[in-house]
Design a protein that fits this description.
245 residues, mainly alpha, 0% strand, membrane
Length: 245
């Protein structure tokens, strides 16, 4: 008796690859949510940015999630480079993965909330000792921008190569969404630094940079969950739980 041939939806290797993509999306989805719930629970308010949670009791959550995302992206091979492509999935993934790791190991400038005792200011990290605190913050910020720009290229250039029209639309919406969050983050940053005291107070009071970064990471999560066909996995799980669904 011949074995039933595997299809893309039943091949264990393909399904495993999808699950890894889904895991990446899940980590990105949970990162801002964990910082929101943990930050409000511990400090009673949100920080000005995701990066500032490096100096909070949630430092391990922030750094650990970035390492999980960075290591996956560095090991992600993707599709082989075609003759008409300037770069491959492999190159783009390694640049974005390395950027995520650099965001985690090059801290930004510490920013402790006023009137709180929960600010954790560790001894200077190895990277801060090597390049000093100010340059470390610049490396951190530049790496974050590179990371988000790589996600834009993934969503607008690499991912839409699929033949599925609905998924192409989701990827493109994610790409433009991340670009919009970059505009929001940059505008809020410049307003906070150059717009005077009133503008800085407005940006801080509404946590514009934090929400811009959180939204960008959530859009990144949606793109990778879509790439990992999380919707199909959810349907299969539902059919197991509710026969005939």
């Amino acid at each position: 008796m011949s074995e039933t041939p595997n299809t893309p939806d039943t091949d264990p290797h393909v399904m495993s690859y999808h699950r890894v993509r889904q895991a990446l999306g899940a980590v990105a989805l949970l990162l801002p949510l964990s910082l929101i719930l943990g930050g409000v629970g511990v400090e009673g308010s949100l920080r000005d940015s995701l990066s500032n949670y490096f100096f909070s009791p949630l430092r391990e959550v922030f750094v650990g999630a970035l390492w999980a995302i960075g290591v996956f992206l560095i090991s992600y091979k993707g599709y082989a480079r075609r003759s008409d492509e300037r770069f491959s999935d492999l190159v783009l993934a390694r640049i974005s993965g390395l950027s995520a790791l650099m965001v985690s190991v090059f801290p930004s400038l510490e920013d402790c909330p006023v009137k709180t005792e929960s600010c954790v200011v560790p001894e200077r990290t190895v990277t801060q000792i090597l390049v000093h605190t100010g340059p470390s913050a610049w490396v951190h910020n530049i790496s974050a921008v590179v990371f988000f720009l790589c996600l834009v290229v993934f969503c607008l250039v690499q991912f839409p190569k699929t033949s599925d029209l609905a998924r192409r639309r989701i990827y493109r919406a994610c790409g433009y969404g991340i670009l919009a969050t970059l505009v929001l983050i940059t505008s809020a940053f410049l307003a906070g630094r150059l717009g005077g005291e009133a503008a800085a107070e407005f940006v801080s009071r509404h946590n514009l940079i934090f929400w811009g970064e959180a939204l960008g990471v959530w859009i990144f999560a949606l793109a990778w969950l879509t790439k990992g066909k999380a919707d199909q996995s959810a349907i299969r799980l539902m059919r197991k739980i509710v026969p005939g669904a």
